[in-house]
User: Fold these one by one.
Assistant:
Number 1:
Amino acid sequence: MTISDVLMVIAVICIWSLLLVNVALIIAGYLYYIKTENEDVPEIKGEYPFVTIMVPAHNEGVVISKTVESLLALDYPHDRYEIIVINDNSSDNSTELLSRIQSRQPERNLIIINTDAFTGGKGKSNALNIGFTRSRGELIAIYDADNTPERTALRYLVAEIMNDATLGAVIGKFRTRNRDASLLTRFINIETLSFQWMAQAGRWKLFKLCTIPGTNFIMRRSIVESIGGWDVKAIAEDTEISFRIYMMGYRLKFQPKSVTWEQEPQTVKVWFKQRTRWAKGNIYVIVKNIPLLFDRSAAKIRFDILYYLSIYFLLLISLVTSDLLLVLHAMGYVHTTIAGLSSFLWLLAIILFVVGIFVTLTTEKGEMSLSNLWIILLMYVSYCQLWMVVAAYGLFNYLKDVIFKREAKWYKTERY
């Protein structure tokens, strides 16, 4: 075998190993969906616990009013929760809009914290830490500033965590509110359903593992106090705090019946900036937690560490290597005897990709349509390939942050 053959075999094995892991997650996630579809959410026994909902917001005037109004309309007892909006160094009309809502609802526990360039403007984690100092709830819920949760969302999260003392946090599902705005948002909607909801469900079903998604989740106040708040260096503060909760001995559960709707990027430029930020943030978390692979007390979360490590490093390198070798082989610069086999496996991978996602779409009302088949195929050859660029650019930016010791700041996602 030539060196090209060896490299191609290694790349193909790595790609297919991760592909089969994701197939297993989809199957397990579908089984979890069938199970939860026929189950009722637990009831809250006794007095409802007091909950603090925190909403970190930076220049969110376009969406913040709708978000706060939806939080005020939750079916949770109004005297048993407070809403803290951290209006973090905003330069738009957010302050005026929030004051207007507050004046219309003087009887409600709606707290507005306005920070300036000195105290705020340093990222979501810093804003959450500021909000936490004013909170009173024994449970802490987080919603992003573009979210409109369904009326039952909070009650379902509270019911789950109050009925199981082993749970440190409970996460819900988020859906794409503007899915029909563009072809890109249709791609994001499919990605959210398949790689967010179904993968979370599969990991919970197989390993009792989940990752906090950054919005529509609830956690115990005692946990935040024990870990000293959110890591201000972490852009992906949701993933980072998930690992710390697991290291405390708690579990995280996924409750798909708790649903929030969020706005997604409608242009490639905005999407690319958002996703490279996510990639950079997750790479920070991976590097920070690699030592846990050799820690016996972290045995339960080794799958997640290896999973993220494989996605952001092993898969990226394998995809780039295999694609490059196939292109060079076609151009006659290198020779590989397994190019035909690689092409066959590539075709088979596409089939598995399409079937897996289509099965996922059958779990959501309004998503089951044969017309989605061409969207999925188009997504594979365009949207999914851009992921390699996103991951590589995220890694590049992470290394720049390390070298130049840059502090975290707000990376504003444009709203519509």
Number 2:
Amino acid sequence: MSDELSGFTIGVTADRRRDELASLLERRGARVVLAPALRIVPIADDTELRAATRACLDTPPDIVMANTGIGMRGWLEAAEGWGLGEPLRAVLAGAYTVARGPKARGAIRAAGLHDQWSPDSESCEEVVEHLKEYGVAGKTIAMQLHGDRQPECSDALEAAGARVIEVPVYRWAPPTDPAPLHRLVDLIASRLVDAVTFTSAPAVSALLRAAGPSADSVLEAMRNDVLAACVGPVTAAPLRRHDVPVIAPARARLGAMVRTLVDELPQRALNLKIGSHVLTLRGHAAVIDGELKPLAPAPMAVLRALAATPGRVLSRAALLRTLPRGADEHAVEMAVARLRAGLGTPGVVQTVVKRGYRLPVD
């Protein structure tokens, strides 16, 4: 068991691989808030997928653009169900196949097919540029869609003279229970999570839609206090368009994203020297001389306020503003008492008679 992320709270917006990601984070000590932003559902009415498959059989594509592993597997499985599996694999085998990422490449190879090229960035834009250089005029391209339509890619290829057959295998849908996502929105806006993870670009848009009027507050929190971690550059693009700084691993893998969080989050922790003690603030916990001390939200809020101006005395009125609306000065005294009890180290939080409290830093 590792404690690299102990004391930190991390939001997970993934659906399909949420348990895997949560396990990777929890094994490193993090507290995880599960809040799927979207879910992947197969096309309920497969008329469109069947029509696209028939179009590929009638006019074998010169180029296949495979966007996702789950999409390619779903397409081939559906074709098998219609008795068209072998004919479809035969026409795909004769095409110049581009796999947008490693999962799509894996699905292609598992089906006994071969891919000829993949982009470094895993972005549709890089695929389009490659295909335009390859030459698409007069050619037919089968584009396996990544959830929703990608008109910017289709339009660019058609403008270059290609005929594009869009292949819809699944679509994005809102989560069955939206309550966890709305709770995560509130936690981000209130700075009660330290990081939030994204594994798809549509999940970013879904989170901001769920935020509604609070979207600006959520973006502001992620620009300053809540770390946004994305599995890769394609996922990060919508946040970067909103000027949100993002961390993303060089290779788009869940494990790599977790390692990036392990490297980054502890560096953001605040460290103070108080007498002979070393105090570190981590999300929902303090670390005193290397020992983790989990704290409730109110004592943690008081500690953060005191640590923001170490050595300075903060009055009860000033500390009251850090607590939930409706609290009174007695709630401040209770929060300070719980903070002292939670830290278990005398002298870290000092009372200054008739003035307030402070951290007596060196």
